[in-house]
Amino acid sequence: MMISKKFWSVTVGGLCTLGLLTVSAEPVQAARDPWLQPFAQGSIWNLPLGSGADYQSKGHFPVGSYVHADPEFHVKTSASDPVRNIYGVPNWTSRCSDTSTPQGTINIPDDFIVPDAITTGGVYETPNNVAAFLKPDGRYLIQLEPLTRCTAGGNVFGYRWQEDLDIQGPGIGGTHWGSGLSAIGGSIRHGELTGTTPIKHALKLNVWGNYLHYNAADATKGYRWPADRSDAKSANTYFGANPRIEMGALMALHPTETESSLGLQTEAGKKLFHALQDYGAYIADDTGWDAYAFSLSNEAMFEFQEHYGYSFNQSSGASGEAKKYFDDFNKLITSLYVVDNNTSGNIGGGGTRRAALADPVFGAMDTTAPTVPTNVAVTGRSTSNVSLSWTASTDNVRVMEYEIYNGTTYLGSTYGNTTFTAYNLAPNSTFSFKIRAKDTNTNRSAFSSIVNTSTYDGYTENFDDGAAQNWVLSSGSSVEYGRLKMVNWGGSESGIYNNRTFSAPNTGNNYVYRVRLQTDSADNYGKTKVYFNWGDASNTYFVQFGGGTSNSVELKKLINGTETTLATYSGSYEIKNGSYPVIEVKYENGGYISVSGNRNGTATTLFNRIQDSARTSGKVGTGVQGTQSFAEDVEVVINAGSTGSGSIIPYAENFDDGAAQNWSLTGSIIEYSRLKMTNWGGTAGGHYTGASYSGNYSYKVALQTDAADNNGKTRVYFNFTDANNTYYVEFGGGTTNTVSLKKVVGGTVTTIATYAGNYTIKNWDWPVIEVLYSSGTITVKGTRGSTVTTLFNQLSDASHTSGYIGVGVNNTQSFADEISVN
């Protein structure tokens, strides 16, 4: 192979050293973006290991019980970001309360929040929160640790590196305070642990102080170049016997090692292998416990979990693919050698380099934003969650993140995934979701189009906060480890939700009650019960599950203390094997009861539409008899299909953004956050064209008309195909205020029914009109304030079984708002 020679210089501690660098004749990389590939070509982070490296024996570190990420914040700032004060943290466990140690100022967005240390049960979690902020000049870095910013727009806390670091310089120093090494050099960034491109820089490694050496007689006690310090308590926490293994030591895999010789099994393990063999890793901090860690940007850490399906942080108790990764991590750590001749004048041991050098020339930072995410859609929802999907953006470098908003409120991000679920939302509420993409250079796209939707009406409780909100727990029930624990060895004990009565006839089509169950029952005498339409201990329905090997399932009722079995499942259904099946009870208008179990995605119908009208409403709950059982993830959903039944995708539009997303407007405009419809002859409509609805659904719209007499009509369309094929509810104005239900089939208009009274939509109190369509039956209600008026009740007509929804007017001006489909 041809050998070329190149001179290089690097400044270390204010001194300039000159060395002879021998490299292979491979071409250098293209001009570099300093944000994505920071620091000089000859920096400790960018120089590959050389053929002259002196590898001292492996086996310096034993197998660790834990492997994890030391997450870092890497932030580009702008001159338009507000200037805020920086203060040193008062102490490691309370970081946001002391302004006595000013550390200068920083440009930082007001919505950038980093929480304080967390204390749980007297045990505190104190992440290092190493951080590097690129100043608006695009050249110098402010480095902090531990970064904390508890309130939006507030002060920033963290000890600051003594000088701002040139992103194009050698880049050694920074706020890994155990070593004094950089807060951004050596960090694994987004995209580096996935895909086929190798990691092209050295890494940073944290190890337990038990393996680090400390000699009080050394001039550099507990550290070696390029570190400039060891931990403040290193004299009492470093117990390693090998004097080569100190803070700042360069660790690497021997050139003779291969993926096969180490038995590596995972993509991530193999990516780390090549980085450790070609560049090595500098010991940067003490983990403080039986664990090893590499430094990752937050984005890389989140991307890892999305891509591989398990966290970067694992323990010896891992299983499946996560266990393979955990094993790979330990194989790498236990095979590391120390490169003993790594010095300021001989970085990486000198000689022929194992990989091509980074280009010495820096290019401009990338300023091209990603394309806008498209096809944003709601893919599912519950009483407290909404799931979204979208089509991926593209970028000239790499899309790093998708930021999801509800209106102006940031909800969270994905780091490669094009799906997202918003959790802990309020039931029966409307949301306006939009998404934008961000690339690796933090350029952001414009927002996507807005998708409006709503959560179902109902109730949720997952017990994760250690409490059972609004539940009345009997003496044998408690919340433990984020689940409801029920213990009773005689009689019947229950934990009944005691705040709301659920009733299908008054809410539309049905309600669905779901609860995840697990029992410790050793035999079929131990019973676990799922209560619904519960009035008291003597009046309720319940599904009863036996344990042990029989695993019987029965549907029962109690009326005035008398127990009756309504149905017995012909097979058996186990709730004992630790898979926590979800039991779902669906109670439908008319007294129909269906029960199913869903175990790991497999649904089993236990009872199908058993009819009994002894109890038409009540509370929900769970209980046990003669055993110990557990319940969690309780949910009641009103007016929705059962799991897997093809329930509709919800929709909502409040026009607050000045637009009518996916509507085809005729003679209509958006004005003052409402749909204004004006027509003095014929019909003007604004038909939603985003989805066609069928089966069971509820369509709501708030209406107001300016009609001076009954000739002015306002129409609520549903199952609309075109102007010649649709249903509509027609409201007159003025003083007569007639209401009629009509259909148009092939252009012929037929009146299905006329309301016996009158119902005004003219007095500016904006009544909500609700159309309930249930597979061929039509119910129409009006809600004014708290008063519900049934205009048409369960009228049968199957002329149109699906279609769009919309509103329109004839010979008047009217307004519509707060539209939703559930």
Essential attributes:
14-stranded mixed beta sheet; 8-stranded antiparallel beta sheet; 6% helix; globular
Describe what this molecule looks like in 3D.
This protein is mainly β. Helix content is 6%, strand content 45%. The chain contains five helices and 58 strands. The strands form nine sheets. Strands 3, 4, 5, 6, 9, 10, 11, 12, 14, 15, 16, 17, 18 and 19 form a 14-stranded mixed beta sheet that branches. Strands 27, 29, 30, 33, 38, 39, 40 and 42 form an eight-stranded antiparallel beta sheet that branches. Helix 3 (267-278) runs parallel beside helix 5 (320-334). It is globular, with a radius of gyration of 33 Å.
Strand percentage? 35-45%
For the termini, the CA-CA separation is: 70 Å
What structural category do the secondary elements indicate?
mainly beta
Q: Count of DSSP E strands?
A: 58
Weakly predicted, low-confidence segments: 1-27, 641-647
Please give the largest β-sheet: 14 strands, mixed
Could you report the average pLDDT, rounded to the nearest whole number?
Answer: 89
Radius of gyration: 33 Å
Oligomer: single chain
Q: Tell me roughly what share of residues is in helical segments.
A: under 10%
Please give the count of helices: 5
Short description:
By secondary structure, the chain is mostly beta strands. It has five helices and 58 strands.
Ordered list of secondary-structure elements with their pairings:
Blueprint lengths: L2 E10 L2 E10 L30 E2 L9 E11 L6 E5 L14 E6 L10 E3 L2 E3 L4 E5 L5 E9 L7 E5 L4 E2 L6 E4 L26 E5 L26 H4 L12 E3 L6 H4 L4 H12 L2 E6 L4 E7 H11 L5 E2 L4 H15 L2 E3 L34 E8 L4 E6 L7 E8 L2 E6 L4 E4 L7 E10 L11 E4 L3 E4 L9 E3 L3 E4 L2 E6 L4 E5 L4 E2 L6 E10 L7 E10 L2 E8 L6 E7 L2 E7 L13 E7 L3 E8 L2 E10 L5 E9 L1 E12 L12 E3 L9 E3 L2 E3 L4 E5 L4 E5 L4 E2 L1 E10 L7 E10 L2 E8 L6 E7 L2 E7 L13 E7 L2 E8 L2 E10 L5 E9 L1 E10 L1
